[in-house]
Amino acid sequence: MSNPKPHSGQIILGLDPGLSVTGYGVIKSHHKVQLLEAGVIRIRRDQPLASRLKELYEGIVEVIESYPIDFVAVEQLFSHYERPRTAILMGHARGVLCLAAANAGKSVHSYEPTKVKKLLTGNGRAPKSQMQLAIQQQLQLKEPPDPPDVADALAIALCHHFATGPVEQLLMNARKKR
After folding, report:
1. N or C: which end of the chain has fewer CB within 10 A?
2. Is the model more confident about 149 or about 167?
3. Is residue 5 one of the residues assigned to a domain?
């Protein structure tokens, strides 16, 4: 996979996968970052798993088709020993999101939650409130983003912006020359 280069006005879609609520955030990455849209895809819990996945797929395809998206950034799967079922269900949701992006020809990049937090706040274990304030500041919002699913999706999009921005590109080029 080639290195992404969000130079002149790249559009990044950040995704926080979930089977009940999936957060999404669309930003334009240029010299400064601009919020284009953010929201949630709510999935009805009373449906069978296959129907819920189809509903999620259709919802995210609608978002992808609404913007000329260059990159999709999604939260990397993590699991808790106490909740293996949750990790499995999240894997289904994440897989559907990756499939929708791949079907649309979009490049998909995964980020660990601790890396997202570290890039935005300097603390890999930052609480949600600190993350929301960091996002509010970066995107120059009047209020912190809410609900948390939207904040997480925007954080992932911003992480991709910072992880592939000009400073990171300079560091990668310097490493290649060694």
Report:
1. C
2. 149
3. no
